[in-house]
Amino acid sequence: MARGSAVAWAALGPLLWGCALGLQGGMLYPQESPSRECKELDGLWSFRADFSDNRRRGFEEQWYRRPLWESGPTVDMPVPSSFNDISQDWRLRHFVGWVWYEREVILPERWTQDLRTRVVLRIGSAHSYAIVWVNGVDTLEHEGGYLPFEADISNLVQVGPLPSRLRITIAINNTLTPTTLPPGTIQYLTDTSKYPKGYFVQNTYFDFFNYAGLQRSVLLYTTPTTYIDDITVTTSVEQDSGLVNYQISVKGSNLFKLEVRLLDAENKVVANGTGTQGQLKVPGVSLWWPYLMHERPAYLYSLEVQLTAQTSLGPVSDFYTLPVGIRTVAVTKSQFLINGKPFYFHGVNKHEDADIRGKGFDWPLLVKDFNLLRWLGANAFRTSHYPYAEEVMQMCDRYGIVVIDECPGVGLALPQFFNNVSLHHHMQVMEEVVRRDKNHPAVVMWSVANEPASHLESAGYYLKMVIAHTKSLDPSRPVTFAPYVDVICLNSYYSWYHDYGHLELIQLQLATQFENWYKKYQKPIIQSEYGAETIAGFHQDPPLMFTEEYQKSLLEQYHLGLDQKRRKYVVGELIWNFADFMTEQSPTRVLGNKKGIFTRQRQPKSAAFLLRERYWKIANETRYPHSVAKSQCLENSLFT
Q: If you average pLDDT over residues 209-215, what whole number do you get?
């Protein structure tokens, strides 16, 4: 990075976190420490869908006031998972309305008796609208899936000598409306010669299945009554030193002391600070680099924060550790820069979708996916089309996989979706995304929407407001998707959705696309989607659509077009898609979308090997720009 830019960043750092991230309340990832405990509630929950005509029988009969089994038959439901594919009851596959979960929990005695302990219930994700009761008491409501929410339930568990047994009831509604994100509509089919009375369907305007339920972990955790509520970190570089600007929010008391330490990967203290905000300087800094861009990628420091406070019940202390990657991100009119060096996104789009678990979080699947990403030579992905689990972001930090972090702003296709209520909710969702993911060095850009109907008059104002709001929340990162953003992301499917089979047209049409967009906006471009549907095992030569040969040939034509521009102003390419995924049923979908280079079971198609060859070649060119680029993968290198 040029010295002038470095000095500017050093001066701007405190201002960035001062004006940015002006978010109310923290959402720190739960962790165990000398002052904190966690109790995971993953496993089997009691489950019941409300099949009544109006879907409101559960509220009319107040199912939350007594054990759920007393209201009628329940089934076992694993958490986390999507409920849609678990049961043999066909009605659950496409169920729209309220479903009910319940779990009884026995708490440690100290949690219920020590009044200096704060007990919090946290739900990792409930799609899409959730109401939570604890022992029959309405405790919490949340709108929107894919993001965590929580409530302090101390007053419900510290009320007497024997309140150690908790009954947690969660009602979830997966209905999509013009004001939800993603949006949808409910259509009543009134022809009684074809449909029963009151028959309705959920219409969606996106191409993935609307899986629902408790799709991420539910847990209880504790903090002291005076506690570290939030930590915000921004980083910059000044010559060979790293600068870590921190801001800490404390709740529960104004009488406290904060000590801050930054430790390197060998647990050696490299900088100290005190107070709720400050700047730590790290001479001889080890930077966080993306995978395959440096011999020591993804270097993480640890920011240790220790709080001591005096309360009416006596002294308390709290301790929290935050991983910190020191890196910079900048955008010019033709380049995307990480740590002052040009970065080229060669990666994938993904879905949190696999087999019967739907979008339920699964550690073995996550580790498998990251092993495949590294085998592929991918250095980035977009969280299409919703925020992924927090554990995914942590893995990206650890392995150096760069993330374009996308909110559920997908399917914004109709004029009625761009209304004031939707705008307010969309801005709230962006606040929650930024609040949760702001400290992840792997996150280099926010994506506020995917393929919105930006040509609509109402959409222009709507999208500009969402983008401006996101920039005000975090000025340190660029924003995409629409043209009036920092980086332009383009989705195109030449020789697939039109000009079927005519692979010879791709290079011309791709060049025209790039040249027109760059001429108009003078901003770097990412080919954020391209691909072809392929059914594993289908073969034909010459290539025909849906065969592995056609997918491979289409990618080859795209790559020739990308190579003409990637040293100019095209700064990335993200294949659609990493793996096959489920969609709604239709005559054009054979058990889901088959554009993956891996099957839904994570087995490679022919295109995976083609892409692997390309990505490793690009990585080698980036890593060794002055040597002859090798096309083969470096099987024995430290990158493999």
A: 95
